Amino acid sequence: MAVELKRLPVRAGPADNPLPVGLWHPRNVLRRYAIVGAAGNPPLTQLVVRSGDVLDAIQAMNTGSFQSTPVQYILLQHGGDGGSANTVTIPSGDVVVQASGFTGMWFGWNCVLQITLKTKSGKVFGPFGTMNNASSKTPFQYNAPTGQSIVAFSGAIVQVPLGGGGQTYIIASRYDHKD
């Protein structure tokens, strides 16, 4: 059974209170955007992106304030420990406005093959994921509405076997249930 991920609704909001843009699925879901939303949608300030052939994991940090006190929201890593970790630091005063890349098949699994992030000032981070061993690829691009930014990511993960034995998790482009 395969169920496609769906795009989160984008709601209007002022530039200083951006809303999440992303994907969701009812099972194995990254629901970190709910945490960020409860915190007032502070902007992304840092990401740790794990990748090799494909996107293995992503972890976000948002910086905001609570009663005039600076607060950092470090969200849980979503995905596995494969690939190499790359830390992305968003310059102060800048925001992420675009996520693009490729989804496709990797050893029979539908996943995010590669992701690139772009800020409002034009700074580009990535691409993360080499797309080696991909048997198909489809480009994607999500742009935050004018005056808003991407503050969180959501989606599904899938457990995959490793060639040398064992298993890991990768970021899925849709949820595939394999018995």
Notes on the protein architecture:
The chain is mainly beta and 179 residues long. It has one domain: Jacalin-like lectin domain (Vitelline Membrane Outer Layer Protein I, subunit A, Aligned Prism). It is built from one helix and 15 strands. The strands form five sheets. Strands 4, 5, 6, 7 and 8 form a five-stranded antiparallel β-sheet that branches. A hairpin with a 4-residue loop joins strand 10 (109-119) and strand 11. The protein is globular. The termini are close together.
Descriptive terms for the model:
Vitelline Membrane Outer Layer Protein I, subunit A; disordered N terminus; disordered C terminus; globular; 52% strand; mainly beta; 179 residues
Going by helix content, strand content and strand pairing, the class is: mainly beta
Could you say which overall geometry the principal axes of the C-alpha atoms support?
A: globular
Strand content: over 45%
Q: Give Rg in angstroms.
A: 16 Å
Low-confidence stretches: 1-33, 175-179
Total beta strand runs = 15
For the largest beta-sheet, the strand count, sense and barrel status come to: 5 strands, antiparallel
CATH architecture: Aligned Prism
Helix content: under 10%
Write the layout of secondary structure elements.
Blueprint: E1 2-4, E2 6-7, E3 23-24, H1 32-38, E4 44-51, E5 55-66, E6 69-74, E7 78-79, E8 84-89, E9 96-106, E10 109-119, E11 124-128, E12 134-143, E13 156-161, E14 167-172, E15 174-176
Antiparallel strand pairs: 1-15, 2-3, 4-5, 4-8, 5-6, 5-7, 9-10, 9-12, 10-11, 13-14
